[in-house]
Write a structure and sequence with these properties.
Residues 13-305 form the GH18 domain. This is Endo-beta-N-acetylglucosaminidase H. This protein is of the alpha/beta class. Helix content is 24%, strand content 23%.
Length: 305
């Protein structure tokens, strides 16, 4: 096990990034785990997931939020802000929805800008901290859409970074986008903050042009419901020994997994983890522990961020 010398006033070791499947898990549970010295175990929580749908008559990629994602976002004061108040950054994951639209087949810069504008509007409306891209389930070619091209993802990243200079943009390293990270002198690393491995139970450094700092990369990825504790701990040790800055977790449940997480935390941060008593909540909301507001349709003034 690596020896981690803790320094007062800052968390030691890699950032913890947790994807939460909000179709079955309560996003608030991201904030229930801390290290034994009171730091957030998870530094970034990702709402999994919003989709890229395809409006066939308009031939346009559109942002789609299913019922559970909508519940979380339209009640951001209940499910998002309490985590942000603890210092946890909240991102929205974006992935395909079998309709032919994805991050890699925008036909031109205008189409990429249009979708980037939709993402920026969602981030600003719901006070999120950024966007995470996952190039899965697009089923490129469906509904008469094009196949992945060389420029689409780069144009999308560039346009979104222009709109969101103050927000996080990350890339779940998977799919056709992994081989389309540069175009005519433009490189993905100029627009991305982070990228992490997507294959759970493995260790692989994402190859993203321009992301040269190890602090921006996460080679270890675990599914907390499927990756063995021993494998997860070994990946944590390797991450620290190699000096990388991110450790990726996926599929946080509504049940107590502190024993599993504590073994990882000991290797990442030099201390174990703890679960705040009475913190875990079920999903969908019961009405007893959470109040859900009816805030559909509310929009902020254009100049408010």
């Amino acid at each position: 096990m690596p020896v981690i010398i803790r320094k007062e006033g800052r968390k030691e070791g890699p950032l913890g990034v947790m994807y939460v499947e909000v179709n079955g898990a309560n996003f608030l549970n991201t904030g229930c785990y801390t290290t034994t010295v009171g730091e957030n175990l998870f530094d970034i929580g990702i709402i999994f997931a919003a989709n890229i749908n395809y409006d066939v008559p308009a031939q346009r990629a559109v942002l789609h939020l299913n019922q559970n994602v909508t519940t979380v976002l339209q009640n951001a004061n209940v499910y998002v802000k309490p985590l942000q108040d603890k210092g946890i950054k909240v991102l929205l994951s974006i992935l395909g929805n079998h309709q032919g639209a994805g991050v890699c087949n925008f036909p031109d810069e205008t189409a990429a800008r249009d979708f980037a504008t939709q993402l920026n509007q969602a981030v600003r409306l719901f006070d999120l901290d950024g966007i995470d891209f996952d190039d899965e389930y697009a089923d490129y070619g469906n509904n008469g859409t094009g196949q992945p091209n060389a420029f689409s993802f780069i144009y999308l990243l560039r346009e979104l970074r222009t709109l969101m200079p103050d927000k996080i943009i990350s890339f779940y390293y998977y799919g056709p986008a992994t081989s389309r990270l540069s175009y005519q002198g433009l490189i993905a690393g100029d627009y991305l903050d982070y990228s992490w491995n997507s294959i759970y139970g493995t260790y692989s450094v994402p190859n993203v042009p321009g992301l040269t700092q190890r602090a921006q990369l996460g080679p270890a990825a675990v599914n907390v419901r499927a990756t063995s504790g021993g494998t997860a701990q070994n990946l944590a040790t390797q991450t620290v020994n190699d000096g990388y800055g991110i450790y990726l977790y996926y599929d946080l449940p509504n049940t107590d997994i502190n024993t599993y997480l504590s073994g990882i935390s000991e290797r990442l941060h030099g201390v174990g983890s703890t679960l705040t008593g009475g913190c875990l909540r079920p999903w969908p909301p019961t009405g007893k522990t959470e109040k859900v507001c009816a805030c559909a349709g509310k929009e902020k003034p254009a100049d408010e961020k």
